[in-house]
Amino acid sequence: MKSVLVVGTGLMGASIGLALKAGGFAGEVIGWDARAEELAEARRRGAIDRALAGREAVLTTDADVVVLATPVLPILDWMERLAPALKAHQLVTDVGSTKAEIAAQAQRLFGRSGRAAFLPGHPMAGKESGGAALAEAALFHNAVWLFTPPAGELKGGERKAAEPESAGAWRETVKSFGARVREMDPKRHDEVCAWVSHLPQMLSTAISALLEDRFAGDAEGMAAVQAIGGRALREITRLGSSPYSMWRDIALTNSEAIAASLWALEQRLAHVRENLRTPELREEFSRANRFRAAPRS
Amino acid sequence: MKSVLVVGTGLMGASIGLALKAGGFAGEVIGWDARAEELAEARRRGAIDRALAGREAVLTTDADVVVLATPVLPILDWMERLAPALKAHQLVTDVGSTKAEIAAQAQRLFGRSGRAAFLPGHPMAGKESGGAALAEAALFHNAVWLFTPPAGELKGGERKAAEPESAGAWRETVKSFGARVREMDPKRHDEVCAWVSHLPQMLSTAISALLEDRFAGDAEGMAAVQAIGGRALREITRLGSSPYSMWRDIALTNSEAIAASLWALEQRLAHVRENLRTPELREEFSRANRFRAAPRS
User: Fold this and answer.
1) Count of A–B CB contacts within 8 Å?
2) What is the ipTM of this complex?
3) Domain end: A169, A184, A199, which one?
């Protein structure tokens, strides 16, 4: 692995560049971004050695690994364009937040008849605000980095056999970032992410928007919110800062699972509301206490 | 102020004892708790100098200040019993989580015809787990400590005039804990607390209970939840550890405002769910972004 091209040098892409450097990667890190300022910032921070000019330059890259670090829809676009353009020895991987569509498209477009290989990935790391300026080499330290090769490749030892050497090299690289590598079926990934990542995001957005509507025109009320609101309010609204630009693609590519988790939570909140004065509230607290007390990995 | 009696020596009561000591209070801190082990732990930790034996001893106390640091329903009970028992120079205050019922009862029972005074209070501090063992002198450092004297006493300069010296002394004591003192109307307090404290709690309980029901019997799923769940899941479920014993009384004494905030959130989640694939999701993220970007006090 002599060179890595990062497509999308925002928070994730620039952090990958910095982590490569910090992990002792001796090759070249190349970058491209549709936003000139993100690309310049990544260069300034030393996350990339060289910036590509123009989309055409991405399609003719001879980098050993191409990392797609954009929101999901541009990842799907880049996959369409890169699949016929790259050579068989090259590897494309990604850090997209949903995996079922990406894994299905990877199976359709990559990995056979002399084409490049594709390894779908998802580091469980990030911040509520994006941009190369916030990038950190340590972003992936102790984070789980999931790989979700298409279902057919996951059975027993077959996956390893089906994967090119370059995929193994990328797995090792990710470990050098301090990340913990796990494998997961892409559909299972999207369903579990709906519960533990997408639902918390939509919830935090909804409650922040609700408080904005309720208190923004009420100066005395907002002052009271700010005086009274402590850690609980901060935590529950933190993701309210997240950018729509990234979440739009997640909502579009995992709508069904997110809608199901939202619906389940709506029912659950109604249940709590109807039982504020009954002993069933005790049962609900007990179930919540049990979830929190379960041993964590 | 030569002596303070803390009724309820759990997390809040024992922390008040420790904060008194740390703030240089030279008088005696006396404690009482229905649970012998909490009382013993508070004594062991140096939060109280002396433990009272039996409820009768509380009613005959000559402490200058009695701090009720139990859940709300026992606070209301103690108010009933203490009002006829104490002398006019004594002050009773509390740290209860809801204030409208307590303030109304205070107005009915205290502060006239030779009776002791009552100053309703609520420090915005706590932990998701209780008990004297977790008490800290620094628990109130930089926290807002609200006082909610009955509405009639809040108008202009009259409140100060209506308050005995002992109430002013307790306000100064609370400042010596590092807390920031604010005044608030008790009904306004309960309504705003419903939004920024009680709603986050019920939400965290509901989502934790939901995840328990969804994943507790599914070992592979729970392993995936634990592998994928990061800071967002931790934050959003943290209060799932909170004890029912305390929240029962909050739910009972602020049911209407909590139910209204839960209902509003249910509607809002449904709105997000119905708009996962429409441009309205962008508007919802914008509103949430605005709430988070508003200047904080």
Assistant:
1) 291
2) 0.88
3) A184
Q: What strands, in cross-sheet order, belong to the sheet with B28-32?
A: B50-51, B28-32, B3-7, B65-68, B91-94, B117-119
| CATH code of the domain in which B247 resides | 1.10.3660.10
The helix/strand/coil state of A113 is coil
Strands B144-147 and B180-183 come out as parallel
End-to-end Cα separation, chain B, in angstroms: 32
Sign of the C-alpha dihedral computed for residues A121, A125, A129 and A134 taken in this order: negative
pLDDT, one tens digit per residue, over A137-151 is 999 999 999 999 975
Which amino acid does the sequence have at A212?
Answer: E
B175, B214: one domain: no
Q: How far apart are CA A217 and CA A230, in angstroms?
A: 21
Q: pLDDT tens digits for A47-92?
A: 999 999 999 999 999 999 999 999 999 999 999 999 999 999 999 9
Whether residue B81 contacts residue B56, with contact meaning beta carbons closer than 8 Å, is answered with no
pLDDT in tens, B255-276: 999 999 999 999 999 999 999 9
Q: How far apart are CA A165 and CA A117, in angstroms?
A: 10
For testing contact with chain A, the best of B205, B222, B237, B286 (most A CBs within 10 A): B205
Q: Which ranges in B67-198 belong to alpha helices (H)?
A: 72-85, 100-109, 158-162, 165-176, 186-193
Query: Which of A127, A276, A278 should we substitute to test contact with B (largest number of B Cβ atoms within 10 Å)?
Result: A276
Look over chain B and give the mean of its residue pLDDT values, rounded to a whole number.
93
On the CB side of A260, CA atoms within 13 Å amount to 12
DSSP-assigned letters across all residues of A42-81: HHHTTS-SEE--SHHHHHT---SEEEE-S-HHHHHHHHHH
Range of the domain at A39: 3-184
- Give me the residue from B144, B225, B248 closest to A195, CB to CB: B225
Which amino acid type is present at position B288? A
Weakest mean pLDDT among A117-121, A198-202, B152-156, B205-209: B152-156
Confidence of residue A157 (pLDDT cuts 50, 70, 90): very low
> Does A40 contact B at CB distance below 8 Å?
no
Instruction: Kindly state whether residues B193 and B145 are assigned to the same domain.
Output: no
Mean pLDDT for the stretch of residues B153-167: 63
pLDDT, tens only, A183-206: 999 999 999 999 999 999 999 999
**Global confidence as pTM:** 0.88
Q: In angstroms, rounded to a whole number, what is the distance separating the alpha carbons of residues B137 and B17?
A: 8
DSSP code string of B8-58: --SHHHHHHHHHHHHTT--SEEEEE-SSHHHHHHHHHTTS-SEE--SHHHH
Residues of A in contact with B281 (CB under 8 A): 244, 247-248, 251
